[in-house]
Structures are given as structure tokens and as C-alpha cells.
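This is your field. Please look over both lines of this record.
***
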Amino acid sequence: MKKFFGVLHYVKGYWRFAIWNIIFNILSVLFSLFSFAMLIPFLKILFSDNPAELEGIVRSGEPVFGFSTDKIVATINYFLAKGAVDYGKINVLFWICIFVIVTIFLKNLFRYFAMFFLAPIRNGVIRDLRNKLFDKTLNLPLSYYSEERKGDIMSRMTADVQEIEWSIMQSLEMIFREPLTIAIYMILMLVVSAKLTIIALVLLPVTALLIGSIGKSLKRSASSGKAKMGILLSMMEETLGGLRIIKGFNAEKNVSGKFQKENQLYTNISIKMYRKVDLASPLSEFLGVSVLVVILFLGGEMVLSNKSMDGALLIFYLVMFYQLLTPAKSFTTAYYSVQKGLASSERIDSILNAEIKIQDASDPKSISKFEKEIEYRNVSFAYREAELGWVLKNINLKIEKGKTIALVGQSGSGKTTLADMLPRFYDPTEGEILIDGTVIKDAKIKDVRSLMGIVTQESILFNDTVYNNIAFGIENVTEQQVIEAAKIANAHEFISQMPEAYQTNIGDRGSKLSGGQRQRISIARAVLKNPPVLILDEATSALDTESERLVQDALNKLMKNRTSLVIAHRLSTIQHADEIIVMQKGEIIERGTHTTLLAQNGTYRKLNDMQSFV
């Protein structure tokens, strides 16, 4: 149950509600003792056909009250007999019925109040867990997501969190109330008959061990089920993103077959899991009744053979024990549910406990502006430290303020990785990157990224309005500023023709726009941010000729008077760069201007000739 109490760590902010929950649970349990069934042994006095028996109890006088079983029973019997003699049996029965109704009403009222104060705990804990999980996903480095399925992460943030809400949080009431109920009944049973209670305490752990072993098996099945659900969500996410290719290659049957196979495996696991869950209640009831029968036999022997126990007390004891079975069964059901939920808890913990390697230093420096140069100094990088082969090897590069530096080379040569290290999406495995002489690892991440604007090959837009996409991440922006940024990006004209202009929703990932339109909105976003440093990652490579011309014109306006790091496949777009860096297998093999590199007749010249030929 260690993991369970780990989840309960979030309850610490809700102790005020928890205390009230505990108080009302105690009151509810105490009033549950006064049920009609608990009065059965005493009603035999009331329904006695022998008037002399009742008069004899009254004549013997009121017993001295004490906390022993005999004295409590004698006191109750005296007042029942006296009431029957003085006021008649019907009147006494009437007041007993009123007493039972009032006590049951109070029991359920206090139980409701206990649940009333549990509701903000249960839902508040889940809210905090969702918030913490979402914040962690925002702070984890990009390298974490390159190793994980997006669908599996989404499964953990949705299905697994919901599983905790249903299986653990909804079990809080039973987890805390039922042990309390069991403890109070056990104390009362010890008072009535210590011998029978000790026998029960010996037998009950045997049943608990059997139930616990099934619970562990359930947890394993639940873990497998959650993993399979993650695979299913990943397949759905990939299918929705690749429908054009699936339909174009007539691969619907193939994709459907793979999904159905995984879905059947998930179904088989779920069937096993629910069969184990459904076993909880009947198994606990059977084992409980078995123990009750043993107690009945041993108690009956004490009454019939050695007369060491009164028959009425045995009935009273059996009623209490039977009353004990209900909370015991509920606790077993809750335990099974918790085991199922702990599998989800472990999957969520794998995200919450994931190491955030890229974070601020203990005493970070502030960088408010960019004044001189950016320097890559002996930078090498591998995605995993133990991985053989470097993505980047011994890179030395200076980018002076106001200059445009272009990165060219084959796919996989390390261009994008080199650019991604500047805003600290990745940190160098060896070497360091400096801005105006300050190592960026020693600076505040927020300050470093505030200096930069990024335009990527794939336009990253959100399912929101044009206005909000352009103003994304920037506070206190006026509509006029957004319009001016759109004009610079050559986007104002087509935005104005949209149904609601800047307030038009552009759909999921900007699906209502063309590629060129999406890219120009991305550029407008960078223009509005007005950063001193620009990172352009193949911003025109996926566009048609006309869109490329419009986007390139917007980029030229954006790059004016700024420091730019440009990744390009089309060499025609970077011929006027101040320096062109040619990369191959993670190393810089050539560098210079367009003219000097052509004169060298090296790799750059070959790339240029191939594109000219095309």
C-alpha cells in the first residue's frame, strides 16, 4: 500500500475537510451500532410470555451500571422489563421503534456529511494530479518525447488519471471508514467474548492472505491493460494523422487488422482483470460466512455444553459479527479497486518522476538583451550518453550580431540539432554555447528563449483564432500590433478575406489554411515577438513556388537588422548569407560565402550544381 499512501500525499492541502470526514465517519459508525438487529437479544425479554419473569427482573432492582457485558445487558433488560410492566409492552415497542428510526437516520445523516466533506478532497486531489502531470509534460525535455509514444502519454494523462479518480479516490471513504467500523465492532466483540474474538482474529488473516494474493495478480493484469491502451491510443493518433496516406495506398484493411489484433489483446486482458475484480465480493462474503459458521459452532458449544456463555449473548455476538462482514466485504472491494488503480499510479509516476535534465542553474544569470555574438565552443552531442556515434562533433562557430548564418548539408547531418541547442531544447554533451560571453547553461532558460524567434518547416499552429495564434505567448498585445505583424508577413490580405477575419478559427493544426498561409501566420507570430535572434528551420522547403516567394519575402523583412541562423535545403534562399556552414555527419566540412564555397569546388558546389540541374 506504499504507492496508495504516495497518492494520498496530495491530501495534505485538504486536512480541514479530512478532519471533518473522520469526525462524521466516527459518529456514523457509533450510531450504526444501534440497529434493530442489535436489539434482538433484548427483545426476547419484551416478547416473553411469562409475566412473572418481567416482574422478577423489576423486583430485583436496578443493577449498578458498569462497562462489563453482564452489567450492560442487565441494565438494558431491567429498563425494558420495567417499561413493559409500568406502561405496557406496546408502548415500549413503540419507543424502541422510534429509537431505531432516529439512530438509523442519524447514522445515514452523518455518513452523508462524511461523504460531503470527502468530495472536495477526492476531486481536488485529482485536479492537483492533472495539473502537476500537465506541468511536468511541459517541462520535460524534447528528448523524452523522442523515446515515448504520444498516444501512451495521452493515455496516462487521461485514462490513467481517470482510473485513479474512480478506483483510488472513490475508495477513500471505504479505506478510512471500514477499518474504523471493523475496529469498533472488534472492541465490542472482545468485551462480549474475548475467546470467540481471538478465534476470529486467528481465522480472518488467512482469508486476508488469499484476498491479497488475488489483489497482486489483479495489479499485474491492470498494468498490462494500461500499456495496451497506450498502444491503442498511439495507433489511433497515428491513423488520424496519416489518413491521406492510408487511403492513398489502399491500406485500410491492413491498418484495421493491426488495430483489431491489439484491441483483442486488450480485451482479453480486461476480461481477466474484471473477473478478478468481480471475485472480490463473493469471495470475501463466502470466507466471512465460513468464519461465522465456525464461531457459531464454537459459541453454541459454550452455551450448550459448559454453559460458559448465555444464549442471548451468543445471538448478540453473532449479530455483531455478521454486521462486521459488510464493512469487511466493502474493504475487500475497495482494496481490489485500489490495486487496479495503483497500476495507473505507477504509469503516471513514471512521468512525474522523470528527470528534467534541462533546467535553470542553482543561481542563474539574467540576460536582458543580445549585444555582441553567439558562440558554439567545442560542442559535441549524442542523444544518449552511452550511445555510440555523435550527432555533432567538435563544433566551433561564432554568430556575430546582425549576421545571417546558414546551415546546409544532407538530411541527418546535424543541422536542426545544432539550431535546437541554442534555445536549450537540448544541452551539449561536451563543450558549451555562449551568448555575449555567458554560458547559456548558467543563464535563465526563460531569458535565453525570450531572445529568440523560431519558424520551423512544419508550421506549429493551434486550434484557435488567427489572432490568438499570432499573439501566442505574448501579453498585452493590441489588435493593431497583430495586424502590423501580419502585414509584414504578407498575411493580412488573406486573413482579411476569411469569414471572421482575425477572429476566424483555423482548425486543428491550422487545417483550414494552405501550407503557405500557415507558414505566414507562423512568421507573423515571430514578427510580433520582435526577437533579436531568429532560427529559421527550412521555413520554405515544403511550399509551392508562389507561396515560397511570398514567404521568402516575409522572411527577408523579418530577418532585416536581426541575427539569423537559417537551416536551408534550397540553396537559392541563402545565397546572400554572411556565412554558409556546410555540415556532414555532425561535422563542419566547409564554411564561407556563397561565392567562395563555389570556388572551392567541394561539397557545397556539388549541392548547388544538383539543385541548378533540377
Notes: Strands lie at 373-381, 392-400, 404-409, 430-435, 438-439, 452-455, 533-537, 563-567, 579-584, 587-592. The chain has 22 helices and ten strands.
